[in-house]
Design a protein that fits this description.
coiled coil; IFT74; mainly alpha; 96% helix; 3 domains; 183 residues; beta-tubulin binding
Length: 183
């Protein structure tokens, strides 16, 4: 029985060594993958920077090609400068228009904020007036508000019904007009 125990202890020791070796192999693989991931992100960032630089250089190349085309097509310096001045003037005008529109928008937004503040102030005034009312007047006010709300709902329903009936009337009038033509 002692040999059996030693035998199993030896087996366990062997399996522990195998597991330890496997764990170290997996750890090395994880380290390698982490290094590759870091290198990939570095290369990806570098590729993005180079792509942006390439785009910038392509833009400059296009500008140079335009200049070369102008020079080779016998366009003189004065016409290029004149075109530049026209484009500069157009650009300045566009900038002024944008500034003016921005200022108008800012003013409209300020007016809107002022109106919202006035509305809020009036609503608070109304609340204070309602709160200051004696209880019998307050209950009558609440009753009238409920009646108004009910009437607004009723008016909305009636308006929808009127719209439906008007559409139906138009359809019937068209049918009558068409049937008279057939007769």
């Amino acid at each position: 029985q002692i040999q059996d125990k030693r035998y199993y202890d030896g087996l366990i020791q062997l399996k522990i060594r195998e597991l330890t070796q496997e764990i170290s192999v997996i750890s090395r693989e994880i380290d390698i993958q982490n290094k590759e991931r870091t290198a990939f992100s570095h290369y990806d960032d570098r590729a993005k920077k180079l792509a942006a630089e390439l785009t910038d250089l392509q833009g400059k190349l296009a500008d140079y090609n335009i200049v070369i085309d102008k020079v080779t097509s016998n366009i003189n310096k004065e016409s290029i400068e004149r075109e530049f001045q026209e484009l500069q003037t157009l650009n300045d005008k566009s900038s002024e228009d944008i500034e003016r529109l921005f200022e108008q928008r800012r003013l409209k937004e300020q007016q809107l904020r002022n109106m919202e503040e006035k509305i809020e102030s009036e609503e608070k005034k109304e609340e204070r007036i309602v709160e200051a009312m004696p209880s019998e007047i307050r209950s009558r006010y609440d009753e009238l508000v409920m009646i108004r709300n009910d009437l607004e709902l009723e008016i909305g329903c009636m308006q929808k019904e009127i719209d439906v009936l008007s559409t139906e009337k138009l359809n019937l009038e068209e049918q009558i007009a068409l049937s008279q033509i057939k007769q």
